[in-house]
Amino acid sequence: MGSRSARSAANGEARPADAAAGAVMADAMAAGCPRLCRRLEGETARAVLANADTLLFDCDGVLWRGEAAVSGAAAALGKLAAAGKRLCYVTNNSGRTRAAYTEKLRRLGFPPAELRHIFSSAFCAARYLRQALPPGAAAYVLGSPALAAELEAVGIPHLGPGPAALPGPAPADWVQAPLDPAVRAVLVGFDEHFSYAKLCQALRYLLRGGPDCLLVGTNRDHRLPLEGGAGIPGTGCLVKAVETAAQREAFIVGKPNRFMFDCVAGEFRVDPARTIMVGDRLDTDILMGNDCGLTTLLTLTGVTTLDEARGHRDSGCPARHGLVPDYYVDSIADLLPALGE
After folding, report:
1. Are 248 and 262 part of one and the same domain?
2. Does a structural domain hold residue 6?
3. Same structural domain, 140 and 217
4. CATH number of residue 246's parent domain
5. Is the peptide bond before 256 cis (omega within 30 degrees of 0)?
6. pLDDT tens per residue, range 206-251
7. Which is the catalytic residue, given 18, 53, 58, 191?
8. Given pLDDT bands bounded at 50, 70 and 90, which one contains residue 286?
9. 8 Å CB contact between 128 and 251
10. CB of 217 closer than 8 Å to CB of 260
11. CB proximity list for 103: less than 8 A, separation 6 or greater
């Protein structure tokens, strides 16, 4: 005699899990959404992971929160690395160098990572400008020392990081500050010293150079979430200020722009069909993954709730369907059973 579940299947009886999955699929199909936002577990998890060569991980809210690793995340990544998976880290944070990320991964117990596996928005911005600027051209930077360090690493001269003051009490004084003739790009990242003086200088470079002066932003994240539901303005607010003043749209190198994935693909021979994007934000991580043809996995340890993802799935609005992941887990640690814990 076979198991009851086998007999039920043979008799056409739906098991509870099958019925739930069928209801999810029916809801998604009714809404016209190509992705189901299903829990990744059991045989499905084993099959999805077996089919993947590369996993791209967002960091904050996925692997750690602040300075504390998400419970079980390091063990899960250790299992993935032992299984021969390529692990890459893709983050919109422009405030840390790649070396700082490799050190944090080590400190929190994650598998060792080489610099070439870290793709921050600071690194991707430097890579973009290295390709786009003529030799010897400089960038005016509204950003952190880490962003400046990534520019230095690829040989791009820069100026601007740190505090800046207006050169006088009147607007006529503000437009007299000297401009470096070598500047051919304005680069906007997270800048705790962002000020009206810097905004004035950025605008002056853009007006002087016209279309030949590039305007580049690291990301459009509108808010940086903090513990307890607090938040601070994100880089997107600073990018928008410069765009509004210049009446120009910046080229964004970070998620959800596919340029960040192109950087990964340029470093490694990555097959999108065998790549998983793991993240906690729908409008950056999941949207980029979907746009690039990756399998997308939402973790609920960060800023997104399951109700939000399901709301997009069931909305019937095609523009919102790009925000829907293929799968979700409560935590990366939920992958451990599928990895042979």
Report:
1. no
2. no
3. yes
4. 3.40.50.1000
5. yes
6. 999 999 999 999 999 998 877 777 889 999 999 999 999 999 999 9
7. 58
8. very high
9. yes
10. no
11. none
Q: What is the pTM for the complete model shown?
A: 0.89
**Mind listing the pLDDT tens digit for each residue in 115-141?**
999 999 999 999 999 999 999 999 999
Least confident of 1-15, 46-60, 126-140: 1-15
Task: Determine whether the annotation assigns residue 280 to a binding site.
Answer: yes
Amino acid at 58: D
Instruction: For residue 173, indicate whether it is catalytic.
Output: no
The label of the residue with tokens 């999941």 reads 286
**Domain final position from 219, 252, 285:** 252
**From the candidates 18, 27, 53, 60, which is the catalytic residue?**
60
Cα separation, 36 vs 310, in Å, equals 9
Clarify whether residues 217 and 230 are in a common domain: yes
Q: Is 330 a known ligand-binding residue? A: no
Tell whether 283 is in a known binding site. Answer: no
CA-nearest of 78, 89, 84 to 52 is 84
- Residue 117 belongs to some domain of the structure: no
- In this structure, the answer to whether residues 79 and 127 fall within a common structural domain is no
Last residue of some domain: 227, 252, 277?
252
* Cβ atoms of 329 and 72 closer than 8 Å: no
- Smallest CA-to-CA distance from 61 within 278, 309, 219 is with 278
58 catalytic residue (yes or no):
yes
Strands (E), 21-137: 38-39, 54-57, 64-65, 68-69, 86-91, 118-120
pLDDT class of 160 with cuts at 50, 70, 90: confident
Which uninterrupted H or E stretch holds 125?
helix 121-132
**How far is Cα of residue 288 from the mean position of the Cα atoms in its chain?**
8
Burial of 54 (0-12, 13-18, 19+ CB in 10 A): buried
Q: Which domain holds residue 198?
A: 122-252
Bridge partner list, 275? 54
Does 58 appear as a known binding residue? yes
CB distance 35 to 290 below 8 Å: yes
Helix (H) or strand (E) holding 163: none
Q: Report the number of distinct structural domains present in the chain.
A: 2
Are residues 186 and 213 part of one domain? yes
Q: How far apart are CA 42 and CA 287, in angstroms?
A: 25
